Amino acid sequence: MQVRISDGATDDEAAAIAAALARHVRDEVEVYVGDADAPAVVRDRPTAGSTERPTAGVEADHADGLGPTDREERLWDEIEDIELGGPEKYKARLDEQGKLFVRDRLDLWFGEDGLLFEDGKFANFDAWHPDSPEVEADNDDRLPGDGLLTGAAEFEGRQLHFMANDFTVKAGSMAQKGVEKFLRMQQRALKSGKPVLYLMDSSGGRIDQQTGFFANREGIGKYYYNHSMLSGRVPQICVLYGPCIAGAAYTPVFADFTIMVRDMSAMAIASPRMVQMVTGEDIELEELGGPDVHARQSGSADLVADDEEHARQLVADLVSYLPDSADEKPPQTEGTPPSKAPEGIDSIVPQEPNKGYDMTDVIDRVIDAGSYFELKPEYGKEIITAFARIDGRPVGIVANQPAQRAGAIFPDAAEKAAEFIWTCDAYDIPLLYLCDTPGFMAGSQVEKDAILEKGKKFIYATSSATVPKQTVVVRKAYGAGIYAMGGPAYDPESVLGLPSGEIAIMGPEAAINAVYARKLAEIDDEDERARKEQELREEYREDIDVHRMASEVVIDEIVPPSTLRTELVNRFDFYEGIEKDLPDKKHGTIL
Known about the structure:
- By secondary structure, the chain is an alpha/beta fold.
- It folds into 4 domains: 2-73, no CATH class; 94-319, 2-enoyl-CoA Hydratase, Chain A, domain 1 (Alpha-Beta Complex); 342-501 and 545-574, 2-enoyl-CoA Hydratase, Chain A, domain 1; 507-544.
- The protein contains 22 helices and 20 strands.
- Strands 13, 14, 15, 16, 17, 18, 19 and 20 form an 8-stranded mixed beta sheet that branches.
- Helix 18 links the parallel strand 17 and strand 18.
- It is elongated and about 105 Å long.
- It starts with a strand and ends in a 17-residue tail after the last helix.
């Protein structure tokens, strides 16, 4: 922004105008005096991570006329120097990497007035900023804040703790003073009961300075102890902006939710160079621990953002479903109708148990329009885990996806569902199960991939969740799949069936093969054998039909599909304050 003021204005007046406008318009301001071709003052756009010095030369607004002394002015100089970050040559590289400088990143997240305060700005000050001679801007010994910013901010109307690595300081590496700042922030979060936001861009521990922070009682190892204590107490959300290696990679996996930024972030237990040294494997960082690896194969990333702005928007959407702490209820909004008519549900669900369809077409007809927020969409795709709202109430949806491998539960999907249920239960978010599965997958490969172990965790999470649970048998509910998916034995508040529903040990084809294969083989006439097989199939399906289950009061009700949303609204509302007790014990052993 360019501004021209009248001839004769003083430099102090020009500076005051520039400072005021820069704060208001959030942009660089150039102030020209009279007809001058060059600006008298250029004021950079302020950032959320910057402390604003009172405009020099302006008379103090005090009755006694007193204002800042030289001592305070020196302090302001020191603060401004700290806020410049690390050496200029490293700041210049951020543009090449498509990354924001850390204080500009805080500006993106929190805006003009969102940063409430910063702690530890002067960390390690004496070591790198002697009074004389002054450390040069490009000197690698610059360690402002010891490479880590911590403090408190307001984000989307919510107060939270934050930490953010400064990648211009030793590649965001962690050392003694920065570690202490990190630990203090976590410990204060335990006391305050406010969420924690980790903006990670760290190469790991500063190896050449490891004495004093690596193995100490209050060293970097305490990060993960504190993560564990915070787990389920307050939401922990981590966004990765760079290559987080070794110790730095544990914070994202300990967080409740992890977002990686494409073409920018990675995480791994060791760097490619270390991997090659230890194993001989020659591998690029993207292939070792990039977003696709962790979003599709390891399941360590919940979401992948396209860029920094997208990462912020994803977190803004995410926190709208979460309470500030386990002591509070999730935030409710005004309900909105579904984006698609509930009357279409019955037409979407095929009567044939082996015919595929997309479960999101059912979900869209049950939840509030625009409220669907899926987590881990590329991992364990046979199960959907998503937040949504039903008449303004946040719910966690666990749904089989018949469009993916018939909705069979594979090990990755079981693990994904267990972790999601556990998180929802920690933050008092009710659960909606939409069941349409042939059960847990069988075969030698899934046994090697720990289908029993991970399936056990899925069932355990469902068993232990004390939030209100509603289960809908959309179509097939075979084998132990109905156990994991909140079946009648797992203390749901309701088990509802759609008219397409079936509950059985196994499906008709498998049952006929298991029970009647020998008898059918004894029938020589091919037509007679086919007729008998069809007769047995129909008898079996009558036996497992949802009407039989309702008749025997196995399920609570068969509901017309067009009324499913209304049923769920009423049932979640009615059971909102339900109390469930677990056995008196220290904890289970399954997870």
